[in-house]
Amino acid sequence: MADHYRIVLLPGDGIGPEVCAEAVRVLKACTEAGGPAFAFTEHNAGGVAIDRDGDPMPDDTLAECAGADAVLLGAVGGPKWDELTGPMRPESGLLKLRKALGAFANLRPVSIPACLADHSPLKRDRIAGVDLLTVRELTGGIYFGQPVGREGEGDDERAWNTMLYSADEIRRVARVAFEWARKRRGVVTSVDKANVLEVSRLWRDTVRALHEAEYADVELNHLYVDNAAMQIVLRPAQFDVILTGNLFGDILSDTSATLGGSLGLLPSASLGGGTGLFEPVHGSAPDIAGEGKANPLAMILSAAMMLDDLGEANAADAVRRSADRVLEAGYRTADLRTPESKSASTSELGRMIAEEVKDRIGS
Ligand SMILES: NC(=O)C1=CN([C@@H]2O[C@H](COP(=O)(O)OP(=O)(O)OC[C@H]3O[C@@H](n4cnc5c(N)ncnc54)[C@H](O)[C@@H]3O)[C@@H](O)[C@H]2O)C=CC1
Ligand SMILES: CC(C)CC(=O)C(=O)O
Ligand SMILES: [Mg+2]
User: Fold this and answer.
1) Which residues are listed under the site Important for catalysis (predicted)?
2) Cβ(210) to ligand 2 under 6 A?
3) 282 CA: nearest ligand 2 atom
4) Which residue is catalytic, options 69, 192, 240, 250?
């Protein structure tokens, strides 16, 4: 084990700093209990970096991230910066970071602890056995394709983006999905819009060819994205690994967040380059920012994915089991509250999970 891991924190905007603080609290509890040690350095990213440095992702921050063992990011963006365009947007800063880190594979797992089954808007029998992993391509597609533009005025005004993928970009993320399927239940569902889009026809041909050449032991299915969105809500337990592009993965992962009843539950890991980026699926939630209502679980579970990536499986398991324990004890943030639950603020939930972790490391 390294002496300590160098972690760059990018708390960002809105609820980002609130949930990031709880992930750090839980990681510090791991260290206190004899687990891995961390050196944290914090930098501005997103709207707060625009305000302070005039740039949503300054070059020195990028360099710090690239030199770290891992990056933990809260969320960026908010109404204050909504009139900005192009590279000056907070969200553009995040895209720049993902690209700079080479983080082309975004893993977004969804499973629902039994004690949360009644929070799902779906009936219990629909969510029984849900355990899916979305593998979303993260550094290509329509979020990055050129040309991008806007011109003209009035009725003649028009704007365009470009959905572009190379076979190499598709193949490398498809490989990640097939490898995960081999470790899981052996099924990949590739999601595209090949009935309409040329780029999706390349996507489908490339995934199919890689499957035939190297992963014939894995079951491969294809779905159009409109049907996939419906199937995730109708019969979510059918999915093992969902492989898809940047835009479709963004939308489908928020769709899959409905299964557990809150976007505040979903973690993610963005991998592919040397340094992993770990961030919740959710955004900066300006509607609840500063009120202690944010659910810190997505961020804390993203930190658990970071521990896995660093090779600290014991600490990662301790964090996940501690989170389960606190939920099983009935504590809920506002997004999941029911008349029967015990209410907890963002920091109260984080504190309880940190206390549990201290008892669990090594157990
Ligand atoms: N990775 C990132 O930094 C992302 C940033 N954004 C940005 O965030 C801002 C707000 O975007 P929205 O579309 O409203 O998406 P959002 O994910 O911030 O919020 C959507 C809904 O989910 C709720 N929610 C989100 N996280 C929660 C949590 N941890 N606990 C409890 N409830 C939670 C919010 O209160 C809101 O009702 C925008 O500026 C957007 O561009 C959006 C998505 C990802
Ligand atoms: C750049 C982000 C705002 C995109 C997003 O919503 C996400 O990655 O989930
Ligand atoms: Mg999103």
Assistant:
1) 143, 193
2) no
3) 9
4) 250
**Cβ 304 under 6 angstroms from ligand 2:** no
Distance 90 CA to ligand 3 centre (A): 14
Alpha-carbon distance of 323 to 335, in angstroms, equals: 16
78 annotated as ligand-binding: yes
Distance 262 CA to ligand 1 centre (A): 11
CA 137 to chain centroid, in Å, comes to 12
pTM value surpassing 0.90: yes
Please give the structure tokens belonging to residue 326. Answer: 């606190």
The one-letter amino acid code at 24 reads V
Is this complex's ipTM strictly greater than 0.95?
A: yes
- Any ligand 1 atom below 6 A from CB of 286: yes
Residue (of 72, 91, 82) closest to 8 by Cα position:
72
- Determine the Cα–Cα distance for residues 84 and 347; give it in Å rounded to an integer: 32
Please state, in angstroms and rounded to a whole number, the distance separating the CA atoms of residues 174 and 140. 13
- Let me know if 254 is a catalytic residue: yes
> Domains in the chain, ordered, with CATH?
1-109+262-363 (3.40.718.10), 121-260 (3.40.718.10)
Please tell me the distance between residue 104's alpha carbon and the centre of ligand 2 in angstroms.
14
Which listed ligand is nearest to 337 at the C-alpha?
1
Per-residue pLDDT of the chain (363 residues; tens, 9 = 90+): 458 999 999 999 999 999 999 999 999 999 999 999 999 999 999 999 999 999 999 999 999 999 999 999 999 999 999 999 989 999 999 999 999 999 999 999 999 998 998 889 999 999 999 999 999 999 999 999 999 999 999 999 999 999 999 999 999 999 999 999 999 999 999 999 999 999 999 999 999 999 999 999 999 999 999 999 999 999 999 999 999 999 999 999 999 999 999 999 999 999 999 899 999 999 999 999 999 999 999 999 999 999 999 999 999 999 999 999 999 999 999 999 988 899 999 999 999 999 999 988 865
